[in-house]
User: Which sequence fits this backbone?
């Protein structure tokens, strides 16, 4: 079966015929850059064999063929002008390296080095390390412009576990998915295998992703039934040679719902036995099963608190069950209560007292911000605060709050802003990345998760440029030191073109795109102004009687006749107290607080004066307008590059940009007209005035349906 | 003589004929606002008499006449619908007030209150307090729109001494003056009295300024000759009824240069005797003489260090000499040494060790920033650091580094940014204003100085809008809690028009104007890029062989192939260490440092990524371009208001804005083209590209002569 699949995918991307419909992701544009100083190797030697080495061999043969239009010969020894790939157990290769440099590579790291006689060796401690090195080598040939004569690359990933979270339901829908139905054809599995599965595994492996949580965190207990576990096993078998481990989201009440027990109390013996049996069943099918993600006592889902137990009780019971198999529990910290005075404080308040109470194979999965994947949030104060608990970031690749797959919003900058945030919890340079990668605290597990934006759309992600967010997540999970701009250029080169002008212009657009979205949606620290439920479009006025107040925009913007913003300073909810100094003082003081977070932490009067001499109201008007102007510039830039892009993708992106501009204006007009009912101030005359009336905008209903 | 002068000025501004050439300053446009709820009083009673009360009487009679076109009757008792002005010694008036509320008024404070029978009383403890109350009353009628039915105003000034520093030379030139020659006609004094002297005193008194340093801090010793002292006495006599005290800048070597002694050593007995004799002579002519300003051991001027003595030795000797007369010494802290590694650190390094060593009647006069009146600087770290020494801020009203009198740059925002800066030296809310006004430390003297922008030009300041900076300085010296926007509107209403659209538009322009200048001159914390000597126009490339390095732009911007900016962090000059926490940490960390000070504290690579997704180079390009766009918007706004402004002043300002736009472009092009020789990056294509070549811009010589 596996050979059959290789054949399918192999022919597709080695054919030399690009489809140019986005289906080939970052394998679309395979060519070396003009100034490349690397010649094509004349020979390949791959001394070892395994399913993974079979992939390595195929990738190199077809990749070099595509890059240099040459059929590279296979040989069986180290030849001059040759390329060799193998593991450190291969003495012929490892003798070229020092023991110490090989040992630091761990499981996934690799070295690519050109030795004497112009032989380039890709070496790792595992087959998978060799695979990652191979993808690096091929990417390097396409994107490097440092003009070095020889390879000398050593890479070790930032995180051990680099995981995609699919919020895919068993019925084929995807929660917060904007690229069509789920790629998992549950009905057809395990009998029928979609060729997309291996393309998926290959795409992930090529950027270093090594885990996938197949189902939604709002988990259907049925996923643990034997029927579904057999489907899962099939996927795990397909993914294994690519190094993609399978994980599942579980429903905490599975023992009662699925197992017929009267309780799911984690301290109940029968419950534990049920889980032990279930684990045994899973691991008998999938010996390298990764573990569980658990969303418990969150947004109405069951959890240990239903039985008077703590999150630690629940997580530890499951951790004990998986421990002997090497499985882990990713326990989500996304909890909040409609009765609390500030949702942004609640995860910290609930989990901080449990610090040190979790098993070693539990890792708390914490969203980047304290609320929920907003266009901009400060980092969650849990990062750095839990010094005796292992934490992993949960990032959102899918654009739930960022215009779905209609808006071009490159998230590399958002991810980097978060990873680079200094928590100061262990002195300066206690950045989120160093807190979570094991540099600051000695964590036995390190991990990072990204909520996938993948669906059955022919271009995978709904928007050609949304692929870049999947790509950027993978690249940063591998190496969080990479710059967002470098990643953007890398992706553009592999996906679209090597044209310098194109690269400069479009990497500029990508780099600016997230800030543009912040500007036209929620500038200056505003957040959660979007439409009810679907989270698309502006509804700052949204009031639904009986609704949870913490699901309504007014809870967050708190606009009134005096001003706007959420007072989280020491005179308000005091959420600032959850941050370490000097951040506490910085966030607590409007004069020091970064302007981009001003209204996140402060309720300020409409006439509050900013450092640039504008009052708050005028600055809001400027920022919203600037966001619109930025989209116009994206549109104009894209149009100017028409000759450098294939017609299909040019038109697709052009259409999306037209939607984005229309909706940026919608956001600007709706928010400004709404806030104006409180500020009673004019929109500065040099800015475009709204073309709609507030009442009309309020009448607009979002009837968008998902792609299919 | 005084009566003669009153006559001259009285007729001028009571004539009802406005000149509309700017000569009448903020007395140009006297009318009540449309919505004013105050009726004109029917009677005036001024029970006391003195030169100051004569002024009060005249101001009220002519002011009310102009405001309501009514001749208000004088009466000699408290009449219904009457207005009374007097001091607390007047029992008929003081009986309406509590003792405690009168005692807190001090020397200069006042109450304006409407009591029963619709009688409004302006009361103070001194004649001058009553004068300030009178000006407040008249201003209030013109500018208040709170629609209150009755007056109930209590005002006590923020600073005791509110002083203009004239950098006027005895030869009639003005250092850094851009509004023509000095208003002091030294040759003609004391015989001939210019009517401008009293207009000057009146303008200052109307906004609360109560002191003037007549001559340049780079002082000619001759000012202390008996010949000049007699001239000074004449001015002091004219100013006295308006409450303007006279001060002089002295040259530290006066005892030798003027007195013929062999030394000016402050510890030398003969030197002390010389100063004692000189003081006696001064005070016999001017019994209320204010004191001395001293620029010593600064930029080549003599000082106590020439004799191995400290600044404290020098200041204390002079302080002892003036002490019995009630005089003070304003000792400037503007010292720096070409051999130091960072000019920004030097005043602190030199003066901090002397903390606590100064006499009570010495006050250190410290410029707002640690370098020199740049478009933007952080506050000088001396503020708050000298807990046992009295400090006063020196602000610059004249636009030495801000386009002279050619650029519309409202400095209210700059002054406020500085005054509101939190030093954190005594916990939070240790703002510069509270550090210097006696709120944090119990200072026996409080003072603030502004370097005047006044000259013989018919509109006093060269640019009609430069008058607003004089006005704003005075208003903030009186009440540093006023907002820059309120002051701008007040000034516009009194100077130009009450038209709401005009006020909103032009206060918007004023509020934004300083940031625009920062953008087109020195964005992101850059500083000192201006032309050599004259300080006009861009010369970031300026190299003059043999010149002091700390007078050259390269010392400050440190542009190189890697990046740009002055590393004052702990890895550089460590100037950040002079600030208290949390500022130290904030300034020390590029991620926390406010963007507007980024390159003040850090040398950052051209590809350094800002939070908005742009790299440093692109952001520089954007900021420079935004500055130009802002000036275009000022120009466009002004043009749209043509119908609301008299023709003369409309044309004057229009012409100045044309110069400003041309020069904003000059700044942008020169700086970007110059920095581009280091960054080797293109100016983003969506921005205007420079129209000039760098070589041509370098050839431009600044041949501007002063107005005359």
Assistant:
């Amino acid at each position: 079966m596996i050979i059959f699949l290789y054949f399918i995918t192999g022919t597709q991307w080695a054919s030399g015929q690009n489809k140019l419909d986005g289906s080939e992701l970052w394998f679309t544009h395979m060519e070396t850059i003009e100034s490349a100083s690397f010649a094509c190797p004349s020979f390949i030697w791959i001394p070892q064999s395994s399913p993974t080495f079979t992939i390595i061999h195929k990738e190199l043969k077809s990749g070099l063929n595509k890059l240099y239009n040459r059929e590279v010969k296979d040989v069986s020894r180290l030849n001059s002008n040759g390329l060799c790939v193998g593991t450190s157990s291969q003495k012929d290769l490892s003798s070229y390296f020092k023991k110490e440099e090989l040992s630091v590579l761990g499981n996934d790291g690799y070295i690519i080095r050109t030795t004497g006689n112009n032989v380039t060796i890709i070496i790792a401690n595992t087959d998978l390390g060799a695979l990652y090195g191979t993808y690096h080598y091929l990417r390097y040939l396409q994107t490097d412009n440092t003009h070095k004569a020889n390879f000398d690359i050593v890479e070790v990933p930032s995180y051990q576990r680099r995981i995609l979270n699919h919020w895919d339901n068993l019925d084929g829908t995807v929660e917060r998915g904007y690229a069509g139905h789920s790629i998992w054809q549950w009905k057809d599995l395990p009998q029928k295998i979609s060729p997309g599965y291996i393309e998926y595994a290959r795409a992930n492996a090529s950027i270093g992703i090594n885990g996938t949580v197949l189902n939604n965190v709002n988990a259907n207990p049925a996923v643990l039934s034997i029927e579904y576990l057999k489907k899962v096993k099939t996927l795990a078998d397909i993914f294994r040679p690519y190094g993609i481990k399978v994980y599942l989201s579980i429903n905490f009440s599975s023992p009662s719902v699925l197992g017929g027990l009267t309780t799911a109390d984690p301290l109940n013996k029968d419950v534990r036995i049920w889980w032990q049996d279930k684990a045994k069943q899973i691991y008998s099918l999938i010996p390298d099963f990764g573990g569980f993600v658990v969303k418990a006592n969150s947004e109405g889902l069951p959890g240990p608190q239903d039985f008077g137990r703590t999150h630690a009780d629940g997580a530890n019971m499951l951790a004990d069950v998986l421990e002997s198999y090497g499985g882990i529990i990713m326990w989500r910290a996304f909890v909040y209560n409609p009765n609390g005075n500030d949702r942004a404080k609640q995860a910290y308040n609930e989990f901080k007292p449990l610090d040190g109470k979790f098993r070693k194979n539990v890792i708390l999965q914490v969203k980047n911000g304290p609320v929920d994947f907003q266009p901009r949030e400060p980092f969650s104060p849990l990062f750095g605060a839990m010094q005796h608990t292992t934490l992993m970031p949960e990032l959102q690749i899918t654009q739930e709050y960022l215009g779905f797959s209609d808006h071009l919003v490159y998230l590399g900058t958002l991810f980097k802003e978060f990873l680079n945030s200094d928590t100061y919890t262990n002195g300066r340079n206690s950045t989120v990345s160093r807190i979570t990668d094991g540099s600051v605290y000695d964590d036995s597990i390190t991990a990072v998760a990204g909520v996938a934006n993948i669906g059955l759309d022919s271009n995978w992600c709904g928007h050609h440029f949304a692929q870049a967010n999947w790509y950027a997540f993978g690249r940063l999970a591998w190496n969080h030191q990479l710059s967002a701009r470098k990643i953007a250029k890398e992706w553009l080169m592999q996906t679209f073109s090597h044209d310098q002008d194109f690269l400069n212009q479009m990497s500029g657009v990508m780099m600016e795109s997230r800030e543009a979205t912040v500007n036209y949606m929620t500038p200056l620290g505003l957040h959660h102004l979007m439409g009810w439920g679907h989270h698309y479009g502006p509804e700052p006025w949204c009031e639904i009687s009986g609704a949870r107040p913490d699901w309504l925009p007014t809870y967050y913007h708190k606009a009134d006749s005096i001003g706007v913003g959420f007072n989280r300073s020491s005179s308000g909810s005091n959420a600032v107290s959850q941050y370490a100094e000097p951040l506490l003082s910085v966030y607590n003081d409007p004069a020091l607080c970064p302007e981009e977070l001003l209204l996140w932490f402060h309720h300020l009067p409409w006439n509050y004066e900013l450092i640039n001499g504008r009052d708050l109201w005028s600055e809001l008007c400027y920022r919203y307008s600037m966001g619109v102007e930025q989209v116009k510039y994206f549109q104009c830039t894209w149009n100017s590059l028409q000759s450098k892009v294939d017609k299909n993708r040019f038109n697709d992106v052009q259409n999306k940009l037209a939607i984005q501009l229309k909706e940026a204006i919608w956001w600007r007009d709706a928010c400004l007209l709404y806030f104006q009912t409180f500020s009673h101030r004019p929109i500065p005359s040099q800015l475009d005035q709204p073309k709609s009336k507030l009442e009309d905008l309020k009448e607009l209903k979002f009837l968008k349906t998902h792609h299919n």
User: Anything to note?
Assistant: Chain B has three domains: 31-155, 161-495, 518-566+603-699. The radius of gyration of chain B is 26 Å. Chain B touches chain A at residues 413, 416-417, 420-422, 424, 428, 483-485, 504-505, 508, 511-515, 581-582, 585-586, 589, 591-592, 594, 596, 607, 609, 611-615, 618, 633, 636-637, 682, 684-686 (CB under 8 Å).
